[in-house]
Structures are given as structure tokens and as C-alpha cells.
Amino acid sequence: MTATTLPAARRRRIRPARAALHTFLVITALAWFFPVLWAVINSFRDYDYTTVHGYLSLGGFTLDNYVNAWDQGRMPVYFLNSLVITVPAVLLTLFLSSCAAFVLSNYSRRFNLVMLAVFLAANLLPPQALLVPLFRLYTSIRLPYWISESGSLYDSHMGIVLIHVAFQIGFCTFVLSNFMKAMPSSLLEAARVDGASVFQQYWKVVLPLCRPSLAALATLLVTWIYNDFFWALALLSSGDKMPITTALQNLQVSFFVDYNLLSAGSVIVALPTLIVFFLLQRHFVAGLTLGASKG
Amino acid sequence: MHPRPPAPRGPRRRTLLRGLAGAGTLAALPALAGCSTRDPNTVTLVSNRANDAQRTAVRDSVDLFEAGSDHRVEINTIDATSFQESINNYLQGTPDDVIGWFAGYRTRFFAERGLISDVSAVWEGLEGAFTDQVRDLCTAPDGRQYMVPDSTAPWAVFHRRSLFEENGYEVPATRAEFVELCERMRRDGLEPLASGVREGWPAMGMFDHLNLRINGPEYHLELLDGAHSWDSPEVRSVFGAWAELLPHHQPDPLGRGINEAQTALVRREAGMMLCGMFLTHVFPEGEDLDDLDCFPFPEFDPEIGADAMEAPVDGFMASAAPRNPEGAHALLAHFGTLEAEELYTAVDPQALPARVDADISGLSPLKAKVKDMVDNAGALTQYMDRDSRPDFASIVMIPALQRFLSRPDDIADLTATIQRQKLSIFGQ
Amino acid sequence: MASPGTAAAPPAAPPPPEPRPRRPRTALRHDRADRISLALMLGVPALLVLGLVWIPAAVTVVLSFTRWDGIGGLDTIEWVGTQNYVDAATIYPPFEPALRNNLVWLLALFTVPTLLGMFLAVLLDRELRGGRIYQSVFYLPVVLSLALIGFIWQLVYSSDQGLLNAFLALFSNAPAVDWFGDPDINLYAVLVAAGWRHTGYIMLLYLAGLKAVDPSLREAAAIDGAGPVRTFTSVVFPALLPINLVVVVVTVIDGLRAFDIVWIINRGRNGLELISALVTSNVIGEASRVGFGSALAVVMLAISLVFITIYVSTVLRGAQR
Q: C-alpha distances in angstroms, A9 versus A12, A13, B2, C220, C221?
């Protein structure tokens, strides 16, 4: 029983406890928010000012750090790379995993468990464990230069997209197949009677009903893929193809020891995920906890 | 009956879904982004010279090349440390035609494995332009050249001239004078030797210099080449001497990046720093940079002297199968010309021309002084990670040197550990 | 959530409330086109997962018995049996600290962030003024990449310019603490940053789990006169069992895959050795000790597979019911 449904007498007794609870939560929340806040504050401060007065001072506020971080850090290039990797990877993952989930949940009873196990487990493997063979594979797959400037899957955005898709399919298939299994079977039967092909059943009947799950998964995938550091580090070699998260380590060099510039850079890099976080918070939470709320 | 909010419901937003329809076709998006028809006259160049001044210098030099040639150059700049970490894979992938890199063991290593191609033809036009030593550094055991050198960034002990003048410090020539100066600086409230080795590799500089002064350059190069045991009195004496100097270093070097240590010198918090010429990138141009001065690492043994010097040579290599071989060689030849080297080194504050015939009259006093030190050096070495196998230098020596810095007291165990790993990497 | 997908582990699905009649899943009248679509719809994703994940993992196991610098053709591979494993265990100094650090990482994530996350979830699982704001603040770090977190915390930890030392200097004259450089403390400093993120994630998982707890159970306990603590230990916690499993697995997998943050700080050396970083520096660095690096990767693979197997079998059993 919680306080809201209790009689007034009892509620009054609980008040001090509530106050203590709020005090605890406020203090913890402030401590939690502090590192981000600190980066934001420093990002607006002039380096020469903080050098002289120290960081525990006030004043020397400026917007220059953002301008400099954007230019010196060559952010537009890296952001474009992140976009060009994230968008196709997310869409392709959702498309392929919903296909697989559709087949597994409706048709292939025998392989269902085995395939789900194979898919889901793949999602949890440590990426380092695949690195060497994957690298050899990527360099040996030659692509025409009009597809990949590097002439192979290695050092191409397409290669990064593919490995993200391969890794994330497992989780999405699992979530979506759970969701699809819970759908009433009469829907598909009706479509079958109407003579719809398998693909039409998937595309016209099942997929539209999966929208809520797909939206939640999309939010999660955008965050994860945007935040990836390792694959781009391992499978890209051109500085100008790096997505923004991996480019962070180059920024460390170009920003030297100017921590204010570094803060501005960090805030800029965090911005897309923060926007996702604030606008689509509900989807994000729903995505993380999908399995719990859906049978 | 219960006040609890319902379990999170599936989100309803349709907007996110709209884009899904095109999922299949969008898979081609990354391909489109990289879609450009390649001009057969294009030469691609990867440059690991990523500081602002270096970017400008490379650009200027390439502009000069393009002005006198039909070839167009595409420059791909990547920060030096990241490039170092990926070069192995990079060269096996689909590398650019021309690659900025380091001379010595690290060029030879790739030449022996066929990852870069012979550029002896370019060298034919460069006869007499470089010393025999620089030529050897660019030559693989097959007797052919694999790199066109363009510049060098030597190591020395750097300091602010004004700080020395204000405090009446004298440039030390011997170990005793050096230690005495350090002690004096500490009494004056300065950190005598700036030190930041978070990246790992900067720690190698001190080992190299002490080994050069205590055991001599010949022994040093043989040791790094795997010819001697690391578990020896010679190596232990190097670590012993280092341990004695440690109290004069900035404390806690392991958490400090090399840039942060350099900043301590800029800010007059530290008195000196053993570093490469790349230190100049941190000194603001003008007053500060003009105040920067240097001297050779002091003598430790009169019989060995102090004329050996680390002068890592940088240059350019050609990939194993350049897509534009003719253009690649033309660009390499350009980087070896007197004009290009003078142009480049005038802009990049860390670089001295590698050519012997470069005009040094226009050099800054600091550069002129270092150039003079290089010309009169008894022996030139490259740096530990360029004079030894890269796997040994990075996998064995970096952790070993970091361990030494955090626990300088068990040298005997340290050298035994290095030797065991050395045997496993170099083979018996 | 060290890298995309770690967090992917969804909470185990509770069994559906009532058994549904089995619907016919085999379609009787599939024409050729339908069979082709079915094969493609399952085949393409399966091919990607097998070809880019499982087969490379298997090849890594094979490579771990070789000595190879990764350059040149496959004919330059030299078979050395278990030599790499022996070398790792005997003459490779970072190996033992890496194992130990991974273990500390795990234990640390299990204690502070997990308990704190659970505690926060219990506190926030009620109608509370500003409850959503608290929740948002606690899981804000979850959306940031660990690489970026390494950057942000650098502003706090830097020994010369960081906030923490500037703050400590106000109160004492003790020498500055080298948070990232001192091998005795840097792991813990980094763990604070990693735990900062992990806590929000755990809180989120438990919040979802708590919402799924049947409220009538609690009401029954309240009527029996059980206090909040007893209600939690005897009613709520047992009902959270599936979530607990998820939390264990997520934490183990996260602990093993932790990489970005130490790599950004110092390439995983000097007190921050983790197996993932050792594999990476042996394999992708200039060093290129492919066989040796693969042996280290297999150690990682073996440990994760144990937990993955437990997890996947439990989750799928739950899903099949």
C-alpha cells in the first residue's frame, strides 16, 4: 500500500519519512547530475581565465569553445559519418530481425528455439573475440571502388553497418518474436484466406502491429550504434571516415590540454543522444524493459 | 484498486516507423556517401602529421607538387597515435598510395613483409642528398630503399632561456652538474624535469638516453635489436641511474599525458624536459617559442661522451600496390626535393630538413642549434619504438617501463621479466 | 552496455497468463514463391549472424593455437599447440592483473551499482512528486557512451587541472592524488565512472520488474501487518527473480566487455589492464601478435559463453512456456 490510498491520519504520520526520502533523492540526484553539469559549465569558460584563476572560480564565460571545438574537431565530418552509419544500420536491423522473427514465430516450430538461441547468444559475445578473422574477411572481400572508396569491406562504412546489423539482429529478433507470438493467430489466418502471400502477411498485417516495439527498439539501436567505439576503431582506418564517438580519441590530441575545449567537444558529442533521451525517453525505457512488459 | 501506474505500454509513435519502408534501399546509403568516380590522375596520401601547423605544412607542400604536375593529391590526415595503432591492419587493407611514416626498424619491418613497395627508383634522383646513415634507415635488408625521408625531429633537454637567466642556472654538461641543477631547481620551488607518460611511449625516451650515455650507442642499438640479454648488469645500471633521477621528475607521471607535462614547462612550473622537437607545438608562437632553448642530454661516462643523439627520421613510403604508381613515385620524389623539404620545415616547428644540402640560414635559432647538434653527433638513433621490433616495444617495454615508474625498487625482477618476454618474441 | 547490445539482454519474459490454444504454425498450402520468401526472410539474417559472428568466433579459437603476425598468406601460420596459453599464464605480466581487474570490475559492479540501483528503484516505485525527474537524472548516464564518459570524468580526475584535486587542495596540503595514473587507485576511480552509468541501468531494470509484481501480493502482506522491509524481503524480492537473473548476466557481460573507457584513458595499461584491452592491443596494434591475442580472446570467449548459455537457456525456457 502506498501513501496515496491511505487515510489522512496515517498519511500525516508518514510525512517525516517522505521528507527524508526526498532529501536523500535530491542529494543523490544532484551528485548524479554533477559530472555532466561540470562539463557543461566548463565548456562555457575561457581557457586563459581558468588557467589563471583555477576551476573553482567564477567568470570568464564565453561561447568560443563551441565554435573552436566544432571547427578544430572537424565535427561536421564526423557527425555525417555517424549519421551515414547509424541510420541504415538501425533500419536494416529492424527489417531483417522482424523478418526472422516473423518466420520463427509463425512457421518454423522446430528451428525456433535453436535459431533464437543462436541469434541471442551472438548478441552477447565479446566483440574482441571475433576481431582477427573478421578483419581478414573484411579485407579479402573486394568491392568495386564506386561502392567503397577503399576497394574492400575494410575501411568502409558499409562494413561497419553490416557488423552492427549482425550483432544487433539477435536481440531484436528475440524481442520481436515474443511480441509476434502474442498476436492473435486469427489475424494471419484471415489474411491467408484472402490469399495474401507470406511476405504480404508480414508486411501488411504483422509489421504494422509491431510498431510500438519497433519504435522502442529503434530508439535503443540509435543510441547503441551511435555510441559504438570499438568497431570503428578496429575496422576503419581513414581518419575522415570515423564516426564521432571513435573520433573522440583524435579530438583528445587536437584539443591538447585545453579542458574547456574538451568539455565543449564532449557536450556536442553527447547532444544527439541527449536529444533522443529527452524526446524519446518513453521509448528508450520501454525498449530496455521490453521483455518484462511483453509476454 | 491499486494506485500503481500501469506497466509501461508499448510506445505508439508512428513517426519512427515511417522510415522503415525504405529499409532495404537505404542499406545502400553508406555506399552512396562514398560514391565518387576516381580520377586516374589522383594520388592518395595518408598523413599522420595531424597538428595544425603540420596540416598546413603538408597542404603547402602538396600544393607546390600539384602546381608542377598533372596529378591531384587527396590527403587523408589521421592522428599519429591512432595511426600507429592501426597501421598494421591499414597496410594489409587497401592503403593509400603514399603513406607518411617513420624510418628505421618500422619501415624495414613492413618492407620485409611486402606491405610497402620498393622506391629505389626515386632514390636514384636523390644521390648525395642524404647522409649514409639516413640512407641506411630507409633501406631494407634486400639493399633497396623503401622510404623517402623528409624531416627529423630530434630529442634534447628543453628549457626556457629566460628561466635559466633569471635564476642564474648553467647548462649542465655532466651527470654531477645535471643532478646539482635539479637539486637547485627543487630548492627554488620548480619541478626540475617535466614528465608525463600516460600514453606509454614517452617513457622510452629516458631509457634510451641513459642507455646511450651509460652503455654507448652501439650497445644500445644491439640491445634493441635483440642481440643482448636484458637481464644484465648493463641494463640494470640504466634503470639504477634512472631510479636516482626519479625524485627530480614531476611526481605521478603515469596519470599525466605528455602534453600536460609540456604545459608545465610552458607555465614555468617545470625547469626542463627531455623531449622531442614536437614539444614546440605546445609553445605559443612568438615570445614563448622564442624563449625555448635546449641542450644535449648530459654526459654520464667520460669514455662514452655525450654526442649520441636521438633524431627520429620521418618520411613517406609507397603502398605495396599503389593504384597510381606513377603519381605515387612523383609525389615521393617531390617530398625528397630540397624545395619541398625547405618549404615543409619552415612551417612545421618540429621539423628539421633531412637533406644535407638544406639551407639553414632561415632557420630559427632553436632549429639552427638542434641542426648543429645533429650535424656534429657521433651517432644518431631513432627512438626505442623505431629501433626495435614494434611488438616488443609496445607489448613488452611500455608496461615494463610503466611498472618501473610505479615501483622503481625491484629492478632485478623487472629485467628478468623483460628478458623472458624478449625470448618469446625475438625467438631464442 | 559497454558497447551496443550489451544491454540488449531483456528481462526474462514472465509466462503468459493463460495458455493459448496452439495455433497451426505450419502453413499447408505454400506455393513456391512463399517458400522462397520464407527462406530468404530467415536465411539472410541467419547468414549474417553466422558469417559475421559465429564463424569468426570459431576461427579465433583455431588461431589461438598458432603463431602468426597476421601479415602475409595463411601459409605463414605456424602451429604452436597450447604455447600461447602457457605464455599468457607464465610470462605475460599484464595477464594476471587483467584477470584480477576484470574480477574486481565484476564484484564492484555487483555490489555498489546493483544494490544502489535496486534501492533507488524501490524508492522510486511509487507515486512521488518529481519521481520522473529523479528517474531521468539517474538514467541519463545510460545514454552516454563509455568513451564519452571517460572524457567527462577526466575533467574531474585530472591530477593537475581536475576538479577533485582542486577541491581537495582547499582542505589539505597533502600531495595531489594521481587518480588516473596511480595503478593502485586508478581502477577504482574508473569504476566510479562506470558504476555511475551502470546504476541507472540496473535501476531501470528493477523498476520494470517491480511494476510487474502483482500488487495484490503486497496488499496481502500489508494486511498481515508486514512492514516495508519485510514486505520487500518476503514478497517483492522473490517475485523479482527473473529480473535478478537478467541483472546478473548483464553485469557479467558488461564486466567482461568493458573496454572503451580504459582504452580512452590509457589504452588499458598500468593498473587498468582488462582482458578486452589486452586482446585489442595485441591484435590491432602495430604489434600484431595474432595467435597470442586470439588465445587471450578465447579466455574471454569461454568465460562469457558460460554465462550466455545459462542466460539464453533460462530466457528461452521462459519464452517457450
A: 6, 7, 20, 21, 21
